[in-house]
């Protein structure tokens, strides 16, 4: 009996994996003909016909006529229906929860944000639930398929468990279970990793299968895409480059160690270093009273001695870590997000010089440093979590089972 049911399960799983593969091909390469789907997926034409029939029945894809370049009868191709399906994407920030209603094309239909008043488990779960319910009520006629939640820290997307948050007391919270009463699939993920995937789907890394996103705000983190796949440990988070030690006798980091990268290269670190130099009496257009990261970046671009010195130093520290990453992952490009990127004309050549100094010439020779498309710490990461869930089958099956 057991054996038989396992066989059925495997057959069902195979069908689900094939359906997801066909959906993904249409989503990424559409409009695309059934013949080309069969060629690219190596599935039998009859299977492709069968799967596309089901996807059409659930309104997940549409047929479009495409005129062949050689003339003659227009061919029928398939494309995904991105604007019929909505999801709520939340970003759990340090002091705010931002929530938006998005569709599968990435268009944002509604955004709202609310301050976080209580940073413990109950407070965070209640605030998230309130935000989601408000949007749900307001857009009751929209077809909601899922909820995505991104945040800084160590999270396990598979189990929905939060292992560590630098900003809230929620370690050990199984967030997807805590929001089970909403009766929608909940996907959670680390903000930077999810945003790297969003750059791949929608941003500056389309068609780029090997790249790294570096985010510099209060902390420093990385999302690594290699061979078109976001690197995620099975149950072990990766990409925490902010805690690579730069100075063993440096400042204490919130992780407990000393002199981590994010204690020397982050918005806060740059502002503190500036204040220190100003206090020592170094000449600058900047003043300690009105110092902001935007003013600092502007001064660096104007050639201010203090700001330029600190950008040069930051490029050295950051470049050292990036050099390691380039030697290990050999990316085609590195994308940067964060306020500090306003200094790109000054920062990027310095960084590239530092990276080239410590990497294989063939690795760094054609490496490009670019600004990421998505610069704000907003809810775009959730888009990637939902896309990935559709492409990796379980969300697609839930949508088809619902109707
Ligand atoms: Zn640290």
Automatic annotation (TrEMBL):
<keyword id="KW-0804">Transcription</keyword>
<dbReference type="GO" id="GO:0003677">
    <property type="term" value="F:DNA binding"/>
</dbReference>
<dbReference type="Pfam" id="PF00480">
    <property type="entry name" value="ROK"/>
</dbReference>
<dbReference type="InterPro" id="IPR043129">
    <property type="entry name" value="ATPase_NBD"/>
</dbReference>
<comment type="similarity">
    <text>Belongs to the ROK (NagC/XylR) family.</text>
</comment>
<dbReference type="InterPro" id="IPR036390">
    <property type="entry name" value="WH_DNA-bd_sf"/>
</dbReference>
<dbReference type="InterPro" id="IPR000600">
    <property type="entry name" value="ROK"/>
</dbReference>
<dbReference type="InterPro" id="IPR049874">
    <property type="entry name" value="ROK_cs"/>
</dbReference>
<dbReference type="GO" id="GO:0006355">
    <property type="term" value="P:regulation of DNA-templated transcription"/>
</dbReference>
<dbReference type="InterPro" id="IPR036388">
    <property type="entry name" value="WH-like_DNA-bd_sf"/>
</dbReference>
<keyword id="KW-0119">Carbohydrate metabolism</keyword>
<keyword id="KW-0805">Transcription regulation</keyword>
<protein>
    <submittedName>
        <fullName>N-acetylglucosamine repressor</fullName>
    </submittedName>
</protein>
<keyword id="KW-0238">DNA-binding</keyword>
């Amino acid at each position: 009996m057991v054996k038989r049911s396992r066989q059925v399960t495997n057959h069902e799983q195979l069908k689900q994996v094939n359906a997801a593969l066909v959906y993904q091909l249409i989503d990424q390469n559409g409009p695309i003909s059934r013949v080309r789907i069969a060629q690219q997926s190596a599935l039998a034409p009859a299977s492709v016909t069968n799967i596309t029939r089901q996807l059409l029945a659930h309104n997940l894809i549409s047929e479009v006529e495409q005129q062949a370049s050689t003339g003659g009868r227009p061919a029928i191709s398939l494309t995904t229906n991105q604007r019929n399906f909505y999801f709520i994407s939340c970003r759990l920030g340090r002091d705010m929860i931002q929530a938006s209603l998005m569709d599968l094309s990435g268009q944002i239909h509604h955004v709202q944000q609310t301050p976080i008043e209580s940073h413990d488990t109950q407070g965070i779960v209640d605030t998230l639930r309130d935000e989601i319910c408000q949007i749900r009520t307001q857009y009751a006629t929209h077809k909601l398929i899922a909820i995505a939640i991104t945040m800084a820290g160590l999270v396990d997307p598979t189990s929905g468990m939060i292992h560590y948050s630098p900003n809230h007391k929620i370690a050990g919270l199984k967030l997807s279970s805590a929001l089970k009463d909403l009766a929608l699939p909940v996907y959670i993920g680390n903000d930077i990793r999810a945003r790297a995937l969003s750059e791949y789907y929608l941003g500056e890394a389309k068609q780029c299968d090997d790249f790294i996103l570096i985010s510099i705000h209060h902390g420093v983190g990385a999302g690594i895409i290699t061979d078109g796949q976001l690197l995620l440990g099975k149950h072990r988070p990766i990409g925490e480059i902010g805690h690579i030690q730069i100075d063993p006798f440096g400042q204490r980091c919130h992780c407990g160690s000393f002199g981590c990268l994010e204690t020397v290269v982050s918005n806060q670190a740059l502002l503190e270093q500036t204040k220190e130099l100003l206090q020592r009496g170094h000449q600058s257009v900047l003043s300690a009273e009105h110092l902001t990261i935007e003013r600092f970046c502007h001064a660096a671009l104007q050639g201010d001695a203090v700001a330029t010195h600190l950008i040069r130093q930051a490029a050295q520290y950051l470049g050292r870590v990036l050099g390691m990453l380039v030697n290990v992952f050999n990316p085609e490009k590195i994308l940067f997000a964060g306020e500090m990127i306003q200094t790109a004309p000054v920062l990027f050549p310095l960084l590239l010089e530092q990276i080239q100094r410590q990497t294989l010439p063939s690795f760094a020779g054609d490496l490009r440093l670019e600004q990421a498309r998505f610069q704000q710490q907003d809810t775009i990461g959730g888009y990637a979590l939902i896309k990935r869930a559709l492409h990796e089958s379980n969300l697609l099956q839930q949508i088809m089972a619902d109707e």
